Structure formats: structure tokens, C-alpha cells
């Protein structure tokens, strides 16, 4: 892959490959064992990237999976434009799926079977009865598409995978007339057998799964679900959708809010230019999307275009396009607005305004589209939600840490009232349908760094220890080290990093070989590898009885070169990233003998790689080197531009233990307004206040802290993102992060000191695990803090556990699930 996959993408890809391989093996064993795999991923999760990774692995293997030279994929949708967009995205994402392997089925297609290691894109209209492709022996055609599908299943069923993209569509049952998708999946008597393995992809898979259960072909179902919270944390989606609409009791404000939308688009442009200049990156040119009713009058269109052109100085007709279903230019109020296919908008930097009607076509992505003004009414909510879902991708495929207002989408809804807007907020919060997993804000307030506070507080905050929590799945540590070496070398931090990796890991292999040779283990392993144990037995043909047959015989046969090559290919998967090849090369060179057999060197390499203890030793050495380089070179990494810093984060997460990272305090961000605003926060509005809706213990804690004359500043620690202080804790089998609520700064006899105060509930199931994580954090980092306290209210009294106390930490280590309240009652003091 050209992209470094997010944790959830790698995890999902691995699960899907496992399921598809199991499905193929099941069909190989029993030609009546049908499977369906369903990838359920929220809008914006990168389903095409996951799919490209799966197909790469199916075709060419990986460090975990062997290649499948017979694998074939039929990619089915109901939209030709979606197929072309998917092809384009796969070409951008994949390092091995070139144009020759991604084939669109067109009118000239006429093949007996689908070829191996190729993806065939089919829109279902090609299988309509009226389409010549669905019929053979016509117009010079030899094979119908149905014949090609049938022949491929018959000859290669265990390696044939049918992908249904946007799988919730095409799942209807219309009386006796079944959809084309259902005929592909379930087969047709005398025409094509059922597809052995079906892989559905959808953000809303319920309809697909219900149809699979309802249809007559019984299948083993394997769901693979991408969690919403993982997509939220990925940085691939905007953080917030900000909704503006006329307040209660006011008349519609179509043109007023249209002008406001233009102003916001130009503000985005200014902010992106500042960020690009600071980071030495190409600027992002934001796009304004204007959604109109299905049949707008000339008067409505004149008003809209008048507002847009009137508010946007220098805007030309060529900067505005329409995506209307008529596919033609429109002429209104002296302007000629040309048509453009949605998939072409993102890359055409002349386009700054897009006019659309219903949701722009499925699969359309335009990360530059950052502002929407919709003239639709509440009953058209689905159209608006679908369109918002196309606009939430981040332009740079990462979260912006410094100017966090660039992580927002602005939507103006002049024909919605407050109650209707609240319905949108609720639906997005619940993720009811196609809504992307993005926070919705209705009363937005922009905050900046508080210039009335001591400047040193911002540096102190960013120097606080925060952690990257390991992902749920991690790659080979050899691959992780190779990636880090490539990054460090590319950023001129370690010039010869890859050469150092090769030398170090070859040395580990040499030491491991010496250890195995010392007791004869290696020579025995090499002999077993060179030879093939063969069992000879006899069948009853001319002999009169079994007693007349010779006994079975076991004997050894030398493996030929081809089989040694097979074992060497396995070694390269066990020792990836060229490590096996590098060791083999060193063996050949070190002999200094032109007659040295390179096949023998491959046998030696394979004998090492097939020994589990050897692999574990190399993995451990690679992991140790990663930790060393990250620790030593973190200051240099922290000074890199954002675009470079972000590529190191996956390397940190691919460990088995949490890694220290950077806390980046934003220069500015947008937050929700609240009834209460607070002084002395590190971020503030134009009045020097920070809005925050605190309740219960949190509010009581902050009120008491602000009453302390020694308090000079505080920070409401956000949940997630690089601007948060993240404390790792162990939850079930995976590490997770907790986010202590308050970071406080006080004057002390030792100067300004930071403190952590976390109002810590004891009623949740993970309360003890989080408290133990915070205690471990305190044990390692207590010198950096004046106080580290967990606070709880019991019987109306606030109590605090001092986590800088070794005795308190010892008690926390012993607490079990459900015992946190008793811990506070027995060990906490009054909070003041």
C-alpha cells in the first residue's frame, strides 16, 4: 500500500482476508458451503482503502498471508461513476494494483472466465436482459457475462470473490422478479450457480444482511465492523459540523445566510493560506456547496447566484459549476454555469462553488467542500445528511493540531428552525442512518490562546508527558523498524538508518545461527529442510490379497530447487522488508566462492526463518531499536512540519506498550457555547472567557480551584486528539486512553507547577482500571507535577486520592472491579 493504514483499517483488512481465506477453504472442502462477509464501516472510514489492502493481500500475499495466484475479484455496483471513482482511489492507494489489474467490463468484454489476480468492475446494468452483454452468441459474442460468471465459479469457485459495493442497495424483493444482485449471489437455475463467497461493503449493512438471511441459499455469515470511535480518532474526518439557522420566530434568511456561507468559505481560505505558509505546504482551496430544491424557479436561482457573486469579490462563472441531473450548463441572471461530473470537482482548482440538488452522487468525495448552504426544508433531511456525509473528509487526510477550526465543516440551513436543527444533532449523535461519526455544534464560539496568561504556561502544557496508546493490531516489528528507518532517513535525522537496520538484523541472525549450531540443532533443521519424507504404499491390483503386498516404506528424497525456493518464499514472509534477502545475500558474498550454490544459501536462510525462537529474537531486536530511536530522536521529530510529524504516529502505535508522544496545544479552535463561561483558561474568546458546560463534581472542583489565589491558569483536557493529555490504562485485553479532566497551574515555592485533578466516577465498570492507569502514570511522572489527584463525591463530600503517595498507589494496585468507592472511603482525604 502507498498509504499507511490506520489501526482499524489494518485490523479490518486482516479480519476480512482471514474470513475470505476460510470461505475459500470451506468451498474447496465442500462445494455446498457458502459464505458471506460484510464490512460495516461508517461514512468516511476509508472503505476503498481497506478493500485495496484486502485485494493486495489476496493477490500477492503479505508477511502474514501467502499469495493466492488464482484469486479473482468481481466488483459489483449499480453505478458506473462509482466504479470509476473506486478504480481511481485504488490506483492512488495501492502500490501493486496497476491499471492492467483493474478492468472495467465494457461492451467489448467477451471472455470464458475472469482472469486470476484481476479485479473486474461491473455495473449491474450490463446484466439487464436488454443488454447484449447478458446474451451469448449474438453480434459476434461468444460468451455472455452470465456464462463468464458461471464458468469462473465452476472452475475456480474457491478463489472467486464477489464484492457488492454499497451493499444495502439492490437488496429488494419485487415479488417473483429478483434483482440482478440477488441473481448474482443466489444463482439462476440453468444459467449460473450461486456465488460461493460474497463480500458486502456498506455503511448501513442491515438490509444486505437481512436479504442474505432471507434468501434460499444458506450462508455462513462473518460480519466485520469498524467502530465509530476508531473513525472519530483517525483524523480522516472533520471533528465538528457547525450548523447555523435563523433563531426562533424569525423569517427565512436565504440570501443572508448564503452571504454568510461565502464569508465563511473565504475565512477558510485565509486560514488555510496561513497554515500552508507556516508549514510550507500547498494551500487548500475550500469549496462552497449550495444545495437547491429539485425544481428551483428562475427567481430562486437568480437570488442565490446574486448573493454568491455579490459577496464573493472576483468570482467568475468558470469558478461555479452545477451537478444537476440534466448534465447541461444553465443560464441564469446573466451567468452561465457549466456542468461538471462530481468526481472531477476535487482536482479542478478552478472550481470554488458547486450547485447541486439531491445528495451528490454516491461515492463522491470532495474534501475541499467545507461549507454548505442548503435551501432544502426539514422533510428533505435525508438529502442534506447524505450531502454532509460527502463533505466530512479532511483535506489533508489528517487532523490539524494548531488551528483546529480547520477541522470543522460549516452548514447553513436558512429553512430549518431550532427544533429541526436539534433533530439533526440527535440523529448524528445516535448515528441512525448514513450520518458520519462527527460531532454537531449549533452555537459555535471561536477561542484563541489566552494572551493575558503567562506565556510559559503554553510551553509547560505542551511539555507534559502524554502517550500514544497501542492499536488493537500491530505489524511485524521488522516492518515497523523498516518504516521508522525510512522516515528518519527521509527527514535527514539518521542518514544511514536502513543500512544500520540491515547490519543489525543480519547480526542477530548470525548470533542465532551460532547458538543453534553449538548443540547441533541447526544442522538437524537444515537436513530436515533439504529432504522430503515420502511414504510408499501399495494398492491391490494383480495381487490376490492384501497379504501379498509389500509393507509400507518410509524413505527420504532430496527436495528439488523449486521446493527450496518455495520454502525461501515462506522465509521472506517470516523475515519481511528484505531482511531474508539481505541475509541470503550476505551468505553468498561471505563465501567468496563463485561455485557456492545460492540455493544452499536459501536453504540456510529458510532453516533459520522457520525456527520460532529465531523470529522472536529478530522481532525483539527490531522493537528495541524502534524504542531507542523514538526516544533519542523525539526532539528532532517534534520540530518537523505537521505533515511529517503525523507519519510517525502509526509507528508509535504499532508497539505492544504505550509510547510517549507530543501534546500540541491549539492556537485556535471552535467550541460549543455554554451558559457558563470561565476565567483563566488557556484558551478564551474575545472577552477572555472559556465556555464550558460543567456539571456535578466537575463544576464543584473547578469552582474551588478558581477560588485559590495561587491558581494562574487551567486547561479543560479534551477527550481525544493530539491536544489532549492521554494516560494509558489496560482495559480487558487492549490498552486504552483516559483523559483527566483538569490540568491546573499554580504558583508554588518551587515556581509554577502543573497539577492533574480528575473528578473520577466510581460507578462505571472501568473505574478501577482507569484509576490504576492514572496511578502508574503518577508513579513514573510525579516529579513533573505539584499534585495528581483523583476526586469523588461521597455523601455530599468531595474526597481526593493523592496519587503522588506511594502508599495510596499501593492500595490502588490491590483494588478490584467495584471497589473504588471503598478505596475512596478508606484512603482519601477531604478535597480542598
TrEMBL record:
One term under GO cellular component: cytosol
Transmembrane domains' residue ranges: none
Entry's Gene Ontology molecular function annotations: ATP binding; DNA binding; hydrolase activity
Pfam families in the record: ResIII
PANTHER family xrefs: ATP-DEPENDENT HELICASE IRC3-RELATED (PTHR47396:SF1), TYPE I RESTRICTION ENZYME ECOKI R PROTEIN (PTHR47396)
Identification of the protein by name: Uncharacterized protein
Organism this protein belongs to: Mycolicibacter minnesotensis
